[in-house]
Amino acid sequence: MKFALNGALTIGTDDGANVEIRELVGDDNFFLFGMAEPEVAALATAGYSPEKYYEEDEDLHRALNLLMSGKAHRRRARVLRGVRVRVAHRA
């Protein structure tokens, strides 16, 4: 369940209850992030490939590599390494 009060700024994706809230509060009071429904449908048709994002987005590549290096959080490095493997080398 979601609700919006007068003057509230909403940050959300364009799905579910957020669609209705956005219609009611107006675009000036709603900050959209993520994809719109047509973009999601196009991605589903083309095929989702997380390793492509990892390889082609230099910032994402560097950020994931930093997390997995252990420099950011040594005790979590092993767990985070698994995330990188799943993203970069999806089975």
UniProtKB/TrEMBL annotation:
Signal peptide: none
Tree of life domain: Bacteria
General function of this protein: Allosteric enzyme that catalyzes the rate-limiting step in glycogen catabolism, the phosphorolytic cleavage of glycogen to produce glucose-1-phosphate, and plays a central role in maintaining cellular and organismal glucose homeostasis.
SUPFAM superfamilies, per database record: UDP-Glycosyltransferase/glycogen phosphorylase
Name of protein: Alpha-1,4 glucan phosphorylase
Keyword 4Fe-4S tagged: no
E.C. designation(s): 2.4.1.1
Catalytic activity of the protein: [(1->4)-alpha-D-glucosyl](n) + phosphate = [(1->4)-alpha-D-glucosyl](n-1) + alpha-D-glucose 1-phosphate
Keywords linked to the UniProt accession: Carbohydrate metabolism, Glycosyltransferase, Pyridoxal phosphate, Transferase
Family: Belongs to the glycogen phosphorylase family.
Required co-factors: pyridoxal 5'-phosphate
